[in-house]
Amino acid sequence: MTIDQQWGDMMDETEFGYPPQQEIIEGDIKKIISYEDRDEKVVKVTRFYKLTKLKVPKPIADRKKWRKFGDCASDGPGINPANSMVGDAVFLTLATKKDQQEKKEDDVAEKMAKLKASGQGMVVCRICKGPHWTKQCPYKDTLGVALDVQQEEANAVKPPVRAPGAYVPPSIRKGEPQDSQTRQRDENPTIRVSNLAEETSEKDLQDLFKPFGPVSRIYLAKDKNTGISKGFAYITYNRRESAETALQTLHRYRYGHLILQVEWAKPSGS
Amino acid sequence: MKPILLQAHERSLTKILYNKDGDLLFTASKHNLPNVWWSINGERLGTYNGHNGAIWDMAVSSDSTQLLTASADQSCIIWDSETGKILHQMAAKSPVRSCGFSLTNNILCFTTDKAMNQPCFIKFYDLRDKEQVATNSPFRDIQIEDSKVNRMIWGTVEDYVITGHENGQICQYDWKTGERLRVDHSHDALIKDLQLSKDRTMLITASKDTTAKLFDAKTFQFLKSYKTDRPVNSAAVSPIKHHILLGGGQEAMEVTTSHTKSGKFEARFFHLIFEEEIGRVKGHFGPINTLAFHPNGKQYSSGAEDGYVRIHDFDQSYYDFEYDF
What is the ipTM of this complex? Predict the structure, then answer.
C-alpha cells in the first residue's frame, strides 16, 4: 500500500531511531554525543570529559579494576550522567574577621557617599529642593506652597497596618535579607586585568594585587578544556581605594614580557 | 570550585565516608541502599542491596575490603565492598544506630536504640572468632541505662570506644571490662556526630546545642569550642590545615518556613585554634547532615537533607590562605 504519509507521523517514527550514541576521543578529551528527549523535543547533547592518567598506590590501582555492581551493574564504563553531574561553581573565600570588619566599615562609608551623590535620604527642601529642612526654607512664605506641605506631613508615609494573618510579601517579611547581599556583591570594587601571559597563575595574581589591600576574590579566566589561561582576570577588592590605587599603579605596568591593561570591570549582565 | 553532584539517594543523607586511601566514597541515606563512588570523578561504582530500612551509620575496614552498615531494619550487615555481597547479617532487637571496626579490624562494635521495650546496647564481636558473627553471639554486651547512644566511634587506640549520647554526654567505654572510663557533660543536647582528627588524637563533636567542640580523644580534656547559630549536624577536622568544617542548619521540619537565601545551609570553615569563622560554601538546599574530608585534605564532601552529595575539590586559593594574626 502506498498511502501518502503525513510528515508529522514520520517525525514520530524517528523517535525510535535516534542516531546511536557516539564516542569520539581526541587527544585527552572524550566527547560523547547523544540524543535525548527534553520537553518533547529531541536535543543533541554533547558531553566533554577530560581523560587523565594518574599514578596511584597499588591498592588503589587494584581497586580501580573493580567491576560495577548492584544497581549500576548495567552501567557502562565511565560516568553515568544520571547520577553524577557537575554543579554550578561555588566560591570559598577564606578571610579573617579583621578583613570582614574592614569591609563592613568601608561599605557604610561607601553607602553614605552614594547617598550624598544621589541626594536621596539627605535633607531636601520640598519647596526649593535646597539642602535644608522645608521649614527653614527662605522662600517658604514667598512661594505660598507651605500650606500643602503641612498637609503632606500629615499624610506622610506610615507603614500600612496589616490584618493579622494577611499575606505578607516575602520582600518585607522579618528576617529576610532584602537582596542586599546580592547587590553588595555587584557593588564590590572589581577591576579587570587583561594582556596577562598564559602562564600567569592565581598565585602570581595574588602576589601582584595583594599589596594594594585585602582582596576578596580573584577570578582568572581559563579555557574550559585545556585549563590554559585566557589572558584576563577579575580582581575584587574589599575597599574601593585599594582597587583605585591598584588600577592607577598597574595600568600599563610591565609584567613579564607584556604590558598589563587594567580597567574597571563592567557590571555583569550589561 | 566546581562541585560534583551525586544524585542517587531518594531520601536525606545520613552518613558519608571515605575509605583510608580516599579513593572510594561511601554514602548512605534514609533510603535502604548504601552507594559507593570513585571520589576522583564521582562515578558510581555500586550499591549494596539488602537492607530494608534507613541506614544510620557506616564504617569501612582499613583495608577497604569490608563495609559495615547499621540500619533501622534492626540489623547490621558486613558486606564485601568489592562485589556488594552480604558476608554476615547480625540481627538486633531494636534499630541499629551506629557501628564501627576497630583499628586492627579485629573487633566489631555496634549500638542499638532504646526502642520497642529494649534498652540501648553496645555490642562487641571478635571477628577472629568466626562463630561470633555467624551465630550472632557478641562476646560483650554493655547495657546503657541512662541516655541512648546516638553515635559511636573507636578511640585513639584499640582499647575503647567513644559514644555520643542523646542527652549530650560523651563517654568512653572499655570493651575488655565493659566499664565506663570517662564521661563529659560539656554539651547539653543530642550529639549528632563524632569524628577524630587524622592522627586520632583529637575528637570533634557536633551537637544540636549549636556548638561543635574539640577534645583530646584520650583524656577528654576540653580544647576548643566552635559556636554557630543553628544545630550542628556534622563536624570534621582538616587533615592538612588548621581548619574545622561544620555542617548543619535548621531542623528539616523548619526548612519550609525560611528563605533559601537566609543562608542556613552552608558548610562553614572555622579556624581550629582561633575558633573564628573564616569561610562558607553554599550549594545545598537543605541542612547538611554529614561531612567528610578526603584523607589527603584536598577534597571534602557533604551530604544533606536534600538528597544530594556534593564533592568539592579545593582551588589553589584555599592552600594560599594564611591566617593573619
Answer: 0.79
